[in-house]
Amino acid sequence: MPDFRSFAPELCPEKDQIALTPFESHHLVTTNRAREDDTVVLFDGAGIECEAILKIANRRRAILTAARYRKVERSCLQITLAIALIKGKTFDTILRQTAELGVSCIQPLITERTQVQVKNSSAKREKWTQHLIEGCKQSGNPWLPNLTETAGLEDYLENANLESSVVASLEDNSTPWKDLSISKSTTLFIGPEGDFTRSEYDSLEKKGAQAVSLGPYVLKSETAVVAAISQLSQYLRLDNR
Amino acid sequence: MPDFRSFAPELCPEKDQIALTPFESHHLVTTNRAREDDTVVLFDGAGIECEAILKIANRRRAILTAARYRKVERSCLQITLAIALIKGKTFDTILRQTAELGVSCIQPLITERTQVQVKNSSAKREKWTQHLIEGCKQSGNPWLPNLTETAGLEDYLENANLESSVVASLEDNSTPWKDLSISKSTTLFIGPEGDFTRSEYDSLEKKGAQAVSLGPYVLKSETAVVAAISQLSQYLRLDNR
Questions:
Q1: Of A22, A47, A71, which residue constitutes the final position of a domain?
Q2: Fewer CB near the last or first residue (10 Å), C or N of chain B?
């Protein structure tokens, strides 16, 4: 049996019947070819999952009946990815990957060397959310990452309350993971292709962000994001043994 | 000064003058816009680097004079990535990323659920090598990963001499990194989009491959590769403290 998953943000355990949005109906019935009586796992992005049966395989309004609800606890690791915007489809891919990796919050940043124009931000936001949902669907992550408003780095730092934070750094003063002091709720800063400026590194340091090296070579942003999240998650898990 | 890097596989410290291939000349002069008297770092992919001055900025045959040679030691971590082929450009991206991450060998695999037809393998190989060189150039890695011939998984396992190996696994019996027994020279198996079959997992297990979990959710191959290499490298480095 294929593992069908659909996003249904308004799930609630009292509901016996669920109608999907046109987008989700199309994805389930046309793209994934689910048929009547197939089992589908619905998730609301906030930890509720529902095993449901597809009753009307309509391409614009699929109808399902709920069989079993369950609540999935939030992970004890809470990673916020504060990342400088990247041009083109790379940023979409990164969003999908962060959902696969179980990041809890994405903070898009504009930095001095960011070369992306942000126009029509609500359309952009909707598109970005779709990539996050896609990552959740593919990976089985029932928690949709929280996507916050794009902000300038300096503005963000001025207002942010950072419990613990690290910045992936190409500078010489970076510290190996084992020497960092980080908590289970950590913000991870990833710079733009041309890196943060010296003055941005200073601002990050003033807010307590610890510089960490991801390895001996210079990683592209798309590689750095997955490498950093993986290393941070692993470090926090190992630390807990 | 921009950080120009070019691949020159026939570097040797006796040579004062180096001519680049047409491909590398084009990349340096046309794409990256290097000009006469610019400093360029040449690397041979086997640990020799040469700081050189661009003397003739010819788009088909750039000529440089050597200023300083240096030898870069090979990392003590030797990771072989044994990976099921993936359709389309994703595999190209993965190759570039493995070079950024400093993998020492790539073993492309055909598995039961691999959905890629391998035709014209020498043209393919040349294209793949180009992506590895690109990753080395971007990241500053002076060691070009060794690309071995594509092989069937069972044939490969029959002949491979695996000092230590792990397989990224979605099965319930996977072990956290901290409980694995792995050496600095490790082979990492990554399955196809539909995962290894039960019988392939059995063959891997018979050869001593230890099943490891990359986290709570199901990662796409492109995410799994970077996550697994990053976690393995980090684990091997932490283990050495």
A1: A71
A2: N
